[in-house]
Each structure stands twice: as structure tokens, then as C-alpha cells.
Amino acid sequence: FIATSSRLDSIRTVYGVSVARSLIKIEASDGNPLSSNFKMEGFISNSNYVAKKTTMVLFINDRLVECSALKRAIEIVYAATLPKASKPFIYMSIVLPPEHVDVNVHPTKREVSLLNLEVIIEKIQSVIESRLRDSNEARTFQEQTVETSQPGPSNMGKDLPSGSKLQKIPVNKMVRTDASDPAGRLHAYLPTKSLNHLAKDTNLTAVRSSVRQRRNPNETADLTSIQELLDDIDSSCHSGLLDILRNCTYVGMADDVLALVQHNTHLYLANIVNLSKELMYQQALRRFSHFNAIQLSDPAPLSELIVLALKEEDLDPESSENDDLKEKIAEMNTELLKQKAELLEEYFCIKIDTHGS
């Protein structure tokens, strides 16, 4: 493991192409002999990597070893930064003075302890968290080519395997939604209003607006930057795509992400994930700094709320396993939200006090 290319080649040879393709390069160092005095470089997995357990290849002074505390600290960063990500793959090479390494932790000398371990862990955690946040890479999927064979006399006359029979498909599964039927159109789910209702709605909107202004006095102060973003959206609107989305007929889902929609005589594949993100982005922009605030009688501690959310995802909610990990994640995210308290209050009317509530 001398050069970066040879390291990646070695990882690709041992662990496979899919692992090597999902790695991010990391580096960290501290030249101060009074603190930690180390140099680290390696690779960590991004959000595309999928595995059920953590794989950590750790070299210290070119010797393959294990360090449970460092491994656990990196797992905490992944769980806090990429909650939905799988267990990480870590390759790490650390160089530090030999006298700073204690190999007498385990009889096999495989497990080691380091001088100033807390400082080293903190610096490595910070670098990994920064790289994971900055990368922000979209999930990628590999294409797979399918060879199609032309039908010929040799395969046209083949009999079906014995015991198999053609299953009759219900008619409603074969015919897609009728284009003339508005039930299949996305805008059909919005209630139609008569002219009599419009006058009432105008009065109701005025009343709601005055109530909101009493609740949030700062609501009327629109931000110029937000208005510029809204103007940019309106000016770059594609009339053709707008017409397709407004008048299309929903056919069905092609897979987990792509939906089939029909517009006139054309059939389109629509990325529901991208459409949803864009919709939510535009909704948030139009309501920016105009969100309603509800004051709780007793401020809710953020750390407890985060732990509750993490436990909600557990397959076994009663299990106390990984409680310390959940508390660490809650602590890290609470500190992050406290740092952004002023921004959250101004933009989203979410007030967070100094106690993290």
C-alpha cells in the first residue's frame, strides 16, 4: 500500500469492484507533538455502499491491527450523518511515533491502544463527518445490458415446459387508465370550486392572514433573496413540461422510482423522487419565514426527541441494545441544531434554547 492507485487496486482485488467504486479518500494529520502527532490517510464508503456489518482495515505504522474505540467512533459518525446508510467500509493507515502505540492490550497483540487516543479520534471523526456532509452524492445505479434474440423458426415452435400454463390476466390489469377519465389525472384530486365559493374563500384567506400576522409579527418581512429564487423558478418554468404534468394520465409505477404517465399519444417515465424533491423545495420557498409557530407549554428536549425517533426505527423497540449509540447520535445532532438556532428561528419559526429544547 504505497500509492493511492495501488491501495485502491488492492481493495478492488480483495473486496471487489463494487466496494472500490463506493469509496471516498480521507486525510488527517496533527504535527503538534504535545497533542497527538499523527498522520492518517485512507478511504471510507459513501452512501452508495451497502453492507450489514462494518469492515475496518486498520494499519498503524504499516502493521495490521484493530482498535475498537476508533471503529466504534467512526460508526457513531456514520449513524449520525447518514442515518439511512448501511454499515461502513473503512481503510485507514495511521503513522505515529512507535512509543505512542501500546501493543500489550491483548495476548495476540492484534488489539492496540494509542497515546492521546481521544484527541486522535476526535480529529478523525471531524474529518469523516465533513467529508460525508460535503460529498452529498446522489445514489448511483449500474446499467445492465440485456441481449435480445430475434425470434426465428428455431425458437418460435418450442413447446412450453411441462406443467406450466398461461395465467389469465384480469382486464383491469391489462388496460391502463382511460385518458378521457379525469380520475387518472394528478390535478383531478384538487377539489373544484364554484364561483360562489371563491368570494367566501377570499374573505377566509384575509381572516387567516390577519391571524397569522398576529401570531407571527415578522411574517410580513419577505426576504429579497427568497423572492429572487421564486422569480428564478417562475422565469425558468418549462411550459411543455408544465403542460405534461398538468394534463397527464397516471398509468402505474415502473419500479420503485419511475412512474409511467401518458400525455396525448406519448408515454413518459417520470422520476417521482426528483419530482417530489422539486415540489417540496418550491413549497418551502413559497412559505419561507411564513411558517406558523406553536408554543409548547413545556419545551421538548431535542435529545429525547431524537432518541425516540431512532427507537421508532428499531425492529425491536423494547431492546436496550445500542442505547449508548443512540444517545451519542442525539448529543451530536442536538449540538448541531443549537449552533443553527438563530437561522432556524428566523427562517422556519423553530425556536431552540440554550439547553437544547
TrEMBL record:
Give the primary localization class.
nucleus
Mention any one GO cellular component term assigned to this protein in its UniProt record.
Answer: MutLalpha complex
Subcellular location(s): the record lists: Nucleus
The chain positions of domain DNA mismatch repair protein S5 read 11-133
Q: Where is the composition biased (Polar residues)?
A: 138-153
Question: Which InterPro entries does the annotation name?
Answer: DNA_mismatch_S5_2-like (IPR013507), Mlh1_C (IPR032189), MutL/Mlh/Pms-like (IPR038973), Ribosomal_Su5_D2-typ_SF (IPR020568), Ribsml_uS5_D2-typ_fold_subgr (IPR014721)
Output the SMART domains linked to this UniProt entry: DNA_mis_repair
State the UniProt keywords alphabetically.
Answer: DNA damage, DNA repair, Nucleus
Q: Which GO terms describe its molecular function?
A: ATP binding; ATP hydrolysis activity; ATP-dependent DNA damage sensor activity; mismatched DNA binding
Region of interest (Disordered), ranges: 136-163
Question: Mind listing the GO biological process terms from this record?
Answer: mismatch repair
Which family is it part of?
Belongs to the DNA mismatch repair MutL/HexB family.
Q: Which PANTHER family match?
A: DNA MISMATCH REPAIR PROTEIN MLH, PMS, MUTL, DNA MISMATCH REPAIR PROTEIN MLH1
How is this protein named in the record?
MutL-like protein 1
Specify the taxonomic lineage: Eukaryota, Viridiplantae, Streptophyta, Embryophyta, Tracheophyta
